[in-house]
Amino acid sequence: MPEGPEIKIAADKIAKAIALKPIKEIFFAFEHLKPYQDILAKQLIIKVDTKGKGMLIHFDNGLSIFSHNQLYGKWMIRNSYSYPDTKRQLRLAIHNQKKSALLYSASNIEVLDEKAIAIHPFLSRLGLDVLDSKTTSRKVKARLQNKSFQRRRFTSLLLDQGFLAGLGNYLRSEILFVARVHPTLRPVDCSEQQISALAKAAIKVPQQSYQTQGITNDLKLVQRLKKQGYQRQDYRHWVFGREERPCYVCNTSIIKEISGGRRYYFCPNCQKV
Predict the structure, then answer these.
(1) Helix (H) or strand (E) holding 47
(2) Which end of the chain, N or C, is less surrounded by CB atoms within 10 Å?
């Protein structure tokens, strides 16, 4: 599933392609949304933003298209009406004179007004968005110290969108490594120093991922590894996807574990219980 940085990158591309430009046509695959095709095609897209892993395309008549890619959704930006050769099902298309924004395979698409956004069952329950400029490490720290979250293991807590919005599998592992916190611990088990480190990493790591198209590793180390011939999959992350490979800090083999059917990675030496 795409995480917050990937959705925000997609939103930026969509905004560049279709925002503030006259629309030629909008297509919805779902029958209950088809009445909005002509209505929205007459409007102007004024902004494209994200809420955690969700996206909102705002129109100047007060309506917005909400989408969530879930596991299989994928946005593509193409030249106008140029469709890719794919077996994916087209769910939403927005065309203008030069570009088309195409959403494939996603099943969660809605058209909402401002009131509906405010009470939406997903959007209204989101926690702090790690990519929102208003989210600070101080706010994240306060959340970590909140009694509602203190006794939950990080393996599940960091995937809870009601805690911090935008995090997912790879960011969970990377944040915990950067903060040097073992995944099976809970906030209540951590020292003040660890809580502070987590609060900072919870913002720094996703923001770096957004700025670098998905790289969470130390950027100076990344440059050295590139020069040595390493491929992106080898230098992209500190620990995620690097099972049995040496830790970049201490050379200890990275461990992979499963929690709730989802994998996570850690260094047993750098992240001691």
Answers:
(1) strand 45-51
(2) C
Distance of alpha carbon 268 from alpha carbon 251, whole angstroms: 11
Domain ranges, ordered by start, for the chain:
4-125, 128-266
Residue 174 corresponds to which tokens in the numbers above? Answer: 């990377």
Out of 8, 53, 99, 242, the active site residue is: 53
Catalytic residue among 13, 78, 186, 262: 262
* Average pLDDT for the chain: 97
Question: Is the whole-model pTM more than 0.85?
Answer: yes
pLDDT in tens, 82-128: 999 999 999 999 999 999 999 999 999 999 999 999 999 999 999 99
- Determine contact, residues 66/119, Cβ cutoff 8 Å: no
Please, what's the largest Cα pairwise distance for the chain?
Answer: 59
Would you give the DSSP letter of residue 236?
S
Query: Could you say which of 3.40.30.10, 3.40.50.2300, 1.10.8.50, 3.90.700.10 is the CATH number of the domain covering 128-266?
Result: 1.10.8.50
Do the Cβ atoms of 195 and 176 come closer than 8 Å? no
Options 2, 183, 187, 206, the catalytic residue: 2
For residue 262, indicate whether it is catalytic.
yes
Options 3, 8, 183, 236, the catalytic residue: 3
